Amino acid sequence: MSLPSAAPSNKPVVMPDGSPGWASQPWNCTFQNGDTAWALGGNGRWRLVNVIGSSFMEDVEGRTQVAYTAIWTKDGQAMRGTFAPGCGDIKPNTAAVRRLLHDEGARCVESEDWAAVLRYDGPGVHLSGDQESEDSR
Known about the structure:
It is a single chain. The chain contains two helices and five strands, in the order βββββαα. It is globular and about 35 Å long.
């Protein structure tokens, strides 16, 4: 986990609906135990993860950040990692986030992740697995 880089020059800081302007943008979002999220790994690829437990504070390059522990499966083995919204490396699994990943051509880890990104069908759509309905924004 590292602190975020500067905004891409062609991306808005915040979209009109309040969602981030680019996939790895720091974003003040919260998670609960069991939430499905998108997490950016050290390899530069996004993957679907499940958040476990509650948030905690962690020092990242000299700054204290809210962080979450998440798990996923790799080659049949359970993996665990720490991700911080303030570093831009974890986002909720919503249509808006999938739209960002899709539009940016984000690299995802597994074919199941790509299938989730490609399910984005546009605004107003509530897909299974979303943390919130597009209609509730």
